[in-house]
């Protein structure tokens, strides 16, 4: 969802920031203009190589080096706003030392200069490798907004932060290592937004810190397993916070399993009736609190997330919420119905406003409603399901986006190991699906019922390790398909000649499918196919044979391949070629000189190939000198923290199935996106 920055900037600060941003963009545009003029006559090694010829200018994009920016800023003594546009280059750089700054956005990890920016009102740190803020942050007495975003290593905030008595908004987003806020956060009497509060049993970290804060916007309370009783929970005084419209509650994975305590605590955390978005994770109670069954209290709700509330047997009458548009339910072992309330009269529709529904890991879920007579889900457009083997879906003619996900070797709640399979006729009641994503489906072929999806426009297959081929019967029915993406399917070895039926296919992507070494000969009939992406698998980084027979291919993207076949130089219809992340790729085929229609060539992070393509000096230069637009981007060195992150952080891997099984991270990610 769109960033909520404009929603939190208040009163005069909104106008101030708008004016300062306009000033910044005027200065930035001037920097870009000067840089563009200079780059026509000189090269800047290490970022983007600019190509020139005597009679023809070759257009390429470029980046401004930080040395140039900070050098120019030394003379900008009255600058009020600085926003770093290039976070990938700035982790090792220092902050600008302009004492007049009022607004600063940076990803720097060297923050010692903060103490000199005493006029600062607005500070955003993002993509920084910091582990905490410096104690000198207490000198920023005029600071009103502090935003911390995507700081993977940020674990705590200094206690000196509570000395910032003018602080109005403290926003933390996607900082997954954060385990503690400063003690006595309640001393910040002017605080109006506190996106995250982490409970600890020690004094200064309890829910009582929230009692007198007039908070609005979003609040995510974590660590509720440390709240011993309902009296401590009531101290948060949530029911009086009328400006709070998003409330999320989390119990940790090591939470106390005494469900009675959780039920009393949740009962005491009653929200105000203005709440529009609500979610909770790790709740161990068997029933929901009375206030969640009060439809009038929750009548404004639009979003609900219920994540890993394992013991819950029954949900509130969510189907009767008039404005509910998004519902996510995951991890409830005994739940049989999403709504088991009664519906009387043909005019009463269940989930009448719901547009997006996600149902994950609900092994005993049988139906959406107990009352099958009621009309339901008239506006539902997006449906995602995973591990719901007993679910029988109603007729859903409005669904246009469907995601089906299974997990191999899933352990159910009794410890039994099972293999997820395709649910019982899942698409027979959904004939208008335009986008279908299938993940972790463990069968050798796709089910024939997919052939009925004659209006499907996009099909994505991800992590289907047992899938060996795409059956001709299925492909024949997909007559409207325009986009086909196949990712991480280890045993897929044949797209089959049925590809000829995809006469409207415009884009094909094949990512990390090591057994797929050749494309069917019928690819030469796909005259609408204009865009192909190939991402080689580490164990077999090759380009599949047959690619050259696609008759009208205009855009080709190649990642992680170790060689380019000579026939690539015969693909004369190509207009754009992207080559990236190929550390072993050493040269281009000599036939590149025949690609006379090629207008754009991008080479990104291919260190050995880059040497061969140096302007005039590289051995391959003569084969690409005719290309009007050529861009050569060097390898960006990882910082030390980034290298460590790559080694230990499983969330960085798209193939790691544990990503889907870590509720702490998944729930936090969803909350941060809302």
Give the key terms.
LRR_R13L4/SHOC2-like; LRR_dom_sf; 28 strands; LRR_R13L1-DRL21; Leucine-rich repeat, LRR (right-handed beta-alpha superhelix); Rx N-terminal domain-containing protein; 6-stranded parallel beta sheet; 674 residues; repeat; alpha/beta
Structural topology:
Layout lengths: L4 H4 L2 H29 L26 H8 L7 E3 L19 E4 L15 E5 L18 E5 L19 E5 L19 E2 L1 E3 L18 E6 L7 H5 L9 E7 L8 H10 L8 E5 L21 E5 L18 E5 L6 E3 L16 E5 L6 E3 L12 E5 L14 E5 L4 E2 L5 E2 L16 E5 L18 E5 L9 H6 L5 E5 L19 E5 L19 E5 L19 E5 L16 E5 L19 E5 L2 H6 L8 H4 L4 E5 L6 H9 L14 H11 L1
Parallel strand pairs: 1-2, 2-3, 3-4, 4-5, 5-6, 7-8, 8-9, 9-10, 10-11, 11-12, 12-14, 13-15, 14-16, 16-17, 17-20, 20-21, 21-22, 22-23, 23-24, 24-25, 25-26, 26-27, 27-28
Antiparallel strand pairs: 18-19
Protein name: Rx N-terminal domain-containing protein
InterPro entries: LRR_dom_sf, LRR_R13L1-DRL21, LRR_R13L4/SHOC2-like
Organism: Arachis hypogaea (Peanut)
TL;DR?
With 674 residues, the protein is α/β, with parallel strands linked by helices. 14% of the residues lie in helices and 19% in strands. Pfam families: LRR_14, LRR_R13L1-DRL21.
Report the CATH architecture of one domain: Alpha-Beta Horseshoe
What's the pLDDT, averaged over the residues? 83
How far apart the termini lie comes to: 6 Å
Percent helix among the residues?
10-25%
Number of helical segments with 4 or more residues? 10
Low-confidence stretches at least 5 residues in length (pLDDT < 50)?
A: 1-64, 409-419, 640-662
Structural class: alpha/beta
Q: What is the CATH topology classification name of one domain?
A: Leucine-rich repeat, LRR (right-handed beta-alpha superhelix)
Strand content: 15-25%
**Largest sheet geometry:** 18 strands, parallel
Rg from C-alpha positions?
28 Å
Shape: flat
What is the level 1 CATH name of one domain?
A: Alpha Beta
CATH superfamily of one domain: Ribonuclease Inhibitor
Protein name: Rx N-terminal domain-containing protein
Keywords: Repeat
């Amino acid at each position: 969802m769109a960033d909520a920055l404009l929603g939190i900037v208040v009163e005069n600060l909104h106008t101030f920031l708008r004016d300062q941003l306009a000033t910044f963009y005027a200065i930035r545009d001037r920097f870009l203009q000067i840089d563009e003029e200079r780059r026509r006559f000189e090269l800047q090694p290490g970022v983007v190589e600019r190509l020139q010829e005597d009679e023809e200018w070759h257009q390429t994009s470029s980046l401004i080096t930080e040395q140039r920016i900070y050098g120019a800023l030394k003379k900008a003594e009255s600058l009020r706003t600085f926003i770093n546009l290039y976070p990938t280059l700035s982790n090792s750089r220092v902050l600008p030392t302009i004492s007049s700054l009022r607004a600063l956005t940076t990803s720097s990890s060297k923050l010692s200069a903060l103490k000199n920016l005493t006029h600062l009102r607005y500070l955003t740190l993002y993509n920084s490798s910091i582990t905490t803020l410096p104690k000198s942050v207490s000198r920023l007495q005029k600071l009103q907004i502090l935003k911390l975003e995507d700081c993977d290593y940020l674990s705590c905030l200094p206690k000196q932060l509570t000395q910032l008595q003018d602080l109005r908004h403290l926003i933390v987003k996607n900082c997954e290592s954060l385990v503690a806020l400063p003690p006595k956060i309640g001393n910040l009497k002017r605080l109006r937004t506190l996106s995250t509060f982490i409970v600890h049993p020690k004094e200064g970290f309890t829910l009582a810190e929230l009692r007198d804060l007039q908070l609005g916007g979003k609040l995510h309370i974590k660590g509720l397993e440390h709240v011993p009783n309902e009296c401590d929970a009531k101290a948060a005084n949530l029911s009086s916070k009328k400006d709070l419209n998003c409330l999320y509650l989390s119990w940790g994975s090591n939470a106390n399993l005494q469900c009675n305590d959780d039920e009393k605590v949740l009962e005491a955390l009653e929200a105000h009736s203005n709440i529009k978005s609500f979610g909770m994770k790790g709740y161990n109670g068997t029933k929901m609190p009375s206030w969640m069954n009060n439809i009038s209290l929750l009548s404004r709700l639009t979003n609900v997330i219920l994540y890993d509330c394992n013991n819950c047997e029954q949900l509130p009458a969510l189907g009767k919420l008039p404005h509910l548009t998004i519902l996510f339910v995951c991890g409830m072992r005994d739940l049989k119905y999403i709504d088991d309330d009664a519906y009387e009269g043909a005019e009463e529709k269940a989930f009448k406003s719901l547009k997006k529904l996600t149902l994950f890991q609900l092994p005993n879920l049988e139906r959406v409603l107990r009352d099958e007579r009621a009309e339901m889900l008239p506006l539902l457009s997006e449906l995602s399901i995973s591990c719901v083997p007993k679910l029988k879906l109603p007729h859903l003619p409005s669904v246009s986006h469907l995601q089906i996900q299974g997990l191999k070797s899933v352990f159910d709640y009794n410890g039994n190991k099972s293999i997820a399979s395709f649910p019982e006729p899942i698409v027979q009641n959904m004939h208008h699906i335009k986008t279908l994503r299938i993940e972790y489906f463990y069968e050798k072929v796709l089910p024939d019922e997919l052939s009925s999806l004659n209006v499907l426009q996009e099909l994505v297959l991800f992590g289907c390790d047992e899938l060996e081929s795409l059956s001709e019967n299925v492909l024949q029915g997909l007559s409207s398909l325009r986009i086909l993406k196949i990712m991480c399917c280890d045993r897929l070895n044949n797209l089959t000649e049925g590809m000829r039926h995809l006469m409207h296919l415009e884009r094909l992507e094949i990512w990390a499918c090591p057994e797929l070494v050749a494309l069917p000969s019928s690819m030469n009939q796909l005259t609408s196919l204009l865009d192909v992406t190939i991402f080689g698998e580490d164990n077999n980084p090759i380009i599949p044979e047959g690619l050259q027979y696609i008759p009208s291919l205009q855009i080709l993207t190649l990642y992680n391949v170790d060689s380019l076949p000579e026939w690539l130089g015969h693909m004369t219809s190509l207009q754009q070629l992207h080559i990236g992340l190929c550390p072993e790729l050493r040269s281009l085929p000599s036939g590149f000189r025949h690609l006379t229609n090629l207008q754009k060539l991008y080479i990104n992070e291919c260190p050995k190939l880059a040497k061969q393509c140096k302007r005039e000096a590289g051995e391959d230069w003569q084969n690409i000198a005719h290309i009007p637009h050529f861009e050569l981007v060097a390898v960006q060195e990882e910082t030390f923290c980034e290298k460590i992150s790559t080694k230990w952080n499983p969330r960085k891997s798209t193939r790691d199935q544990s990503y889907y099984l870590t509720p702490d991270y998944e729930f936090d990610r969803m909350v941060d996106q809302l």
